[in-house]
Design brief:
mainly alpha; about 85% helix; globular
Amino acid sequence: MNPIITPFAGLAGLVVAFLILATILKRPGGEGKVKEIADQIHKGAMIFMRREFVLISLFAIIIGGLLFFFQKAEYGKQQSLAFFLGCLASSFSGFVGMFTATKSNVRTTLAARDNGQADALSVAFFGGSVMGLTVASMGLIGLGGVYYFYKDSHAVAEIMEGFAMGASLVALFYRVGGGIFTKAADVGADLVGKVEAGIPEDDPRNPGVIADNVGDNVGDVAGMGSDIFESYCGAQIACVAIVAAMAAKLHISDPTAIVAHGASKETLMHMPLALTTMGLACSILGILLVKVMSAKDPASALRFGTIGAAVIFIVGSFGLCNMLGVSSNIAAAVLCGAVGGIAIGLVTEYYTGGKPVRDIAKSGETGVATVMITGLSVGLKSVAIPMLTLAAIIFVSYEFAGLLGVGLAAVGMLGTVGITMAIDAYGPVADNAGGIAEMSAMGPETRKITDGLDAVGNTTAAIGKGFAIGAAGLAALALITAFIQKAHIVNFDFKDEAVLRTFFVGLFIGGVVPFLNGAITMEAVGSAAFEMINEIRRQFREIPGLLEGTGKPDSEKCIDIATRAATKRMILPALLAVGTPLAVGFGFNMVGGIGAIALTGTLCGALLGCILMALFMSNAGGAWDNAKKYVEEGHHGGKNSETHKGCVVGDTVGDPFKDTSGPSMNILINVMAIVSLVIAPLL
C-alpha cells in the first residue's frame, strides 16, 4: 500500500463526517424554550473549549520550545513541529465533536417528539458518528502525513513520537478538565436538587442543570474523544518505534516469523497505518449497519454495528497481510486485540448493567453504608476478568509476532475507532436530549423515548470506558516496550543487585503515581462541587419564586464556577504526568547513570496501578449510577424512598470515580509512556 493513501483516506473520512454534520444541521433546531435551552448548552460548551484551548496553548508552547532547542539536533525541529500538529489534530477533533454533540442533542429531542424512536436514534448516533470519524480521520491525516513526508528519514519514528506527545497533552487537559467540570456540576445538581429540594433530575428550576448538560459533552465527548485519539496514535507510533529499534539491532525477524516473502522494514513500519486506514472504511460500514438496523431495538442496532465492523476489520487484516506479503501472524496479533477489546467491553457491560447493579440497588434497603460497601465490592471484582484478558492478549500476541505483536494487538483493539467512538459519543447526545425534553416540558411520550435512548447510552458509555481502559493499557505497554528497545536496556541483568534495586525503586515510585493522581482529581471535584452546591443553595434561597417555577435560575454562574474549577485544577495532574518521567529519568542519571532502568520500573509500576485503578473506579462508579436509575424505575421503593436516597449518595461518590479519576488514569500512563519514549535518547 502506498503511504500517500493513508492521509488521503483520512481526508475522505473527514469529508464523510462533515457531510453527516451538514445533514444534521439541516434538521430543525427548535424554537422558543427548546432553542433557548439548547443554545445555553452550546454556548457553555464553547466557552469551556475556548478557555481550555488557551491553557493548552501555553503548555504546548513551553513543551514544543523545549523539544525544539534541547532535543537531538538531527530531528529536534521536526519533532517539535510534529508535536504542534498533534496538539492541533487532537484539539480540532475535540472541537468538532463538541460542536456536533451540542447541535445534535436538541435535534434528537425534536426527532423523538415528531418522528419516534428510530429517527431519534438515527440523529443521536449520527451526531456521535461525526466525532468517531473525525478522531479516526485526523489520526490518519496527521500520522499518515508525517510518515509520508519523513519516511526516508532515519528518525521517522522519533518525529512521529512528537505527534503522539502533542495528542497526549491535549488529551490530558480535555479528559481531566472535562471530568472535573462535569462532575462538579453533576454532584452539585444532584445533591441539592434531588436530595435536598426533592425535585426531579433535569428540572429547569435547578440552576446546575444546564452546567450538568454542558458537562456531559465536555467530559464524554471532547474528553473521551481525545482519550481515544491519543491511544489510537500511541499504538501506531509504538509499532513504528518497535520496528525501527528492531531493525537497528538486526533482530527484525526475531523471535518469530514476523516477515514473510521478503517484506521490507518500510512495509512493517507502515503496517499499523495501513491497518487503521482499512479500519476507517470498516467503521463507515459499521455506521451504515447501525442506520439500517435503527428501526429495531437501539441496543441491538448499536451492538450489531460495532461487532460487525470489528469482524470485517479482522477478515480484512488477513487479506491486507496477504496483499502486502507479510506473515499472517501480523493479522493474528491484530485479531487478539480486537477480540480482547470486545471481551472487555462485554464484561464491563455486565458489571455496570447486569446483576451486580441490582445487588447494589437491593442493598440500599438497609442504608447508605451497604450501598457503598456493595458498590466497592462490585468495582473490585470487575477488575479480575479484564486484567486476565489483557494478560492473555499480551501473551498470545507476543507468541504470534514478538514485541511488535503487542503493539499490533493495541492497533487491533483501536482499528475501528470510528464506530466505537461514535457509539460512545452517542451517549451524551441522548442524555442531553432527555434533559432538553424535561426542561422544555415536552410530555411523557417524548421523555419515554429519550429515556430509552439514554438508558442505552449509559450502557454504551460504560462499555466505552472499559474499552478505553483496555486500549490505553495496551497502547501504553507498547510505548513502554518501544522505550525499552530505544533505551538499549532489553537485556539488563536482574542478577546484578544494583540493577535489581534500581528497578524496584522505580517500580514503587510508579505505583504511587496513580494514587496521587486519583487523590488530586477527586479532591478537585470535591472542592468544585462544594462551591457549586453553595451557589445552587444560594439561588434557591435568594431568587424569588425559583422553587415555585416563577423565578429564573442563573445557569451561567454555575457554568462559570465549573469552568474556572476545571481550568485551575487540571494543572497539577498535568505536571505530575509530564514531570514524573523527567524527574526519575534525569534524576537517577545524575546519581549513577541508571535513569533508564529506574524509569522502566516507574513505567511498569504506573502501568499496573493505572489499569487497576481505572477499571475499579470506572466500573464501581458506573454500577452505582445504574443502581440509582434502577431504583428510579420503581424498584425497591422507587423515587424519593430511603433506598433511592442511599443510591443517590452512592451515585454521587461514583460520579468522580467513573468520569474524572478513573478515566484520567488512561491519559496519565500514556503521557508518562510517550514522554519517556521521547527523552529515551537523552538518558
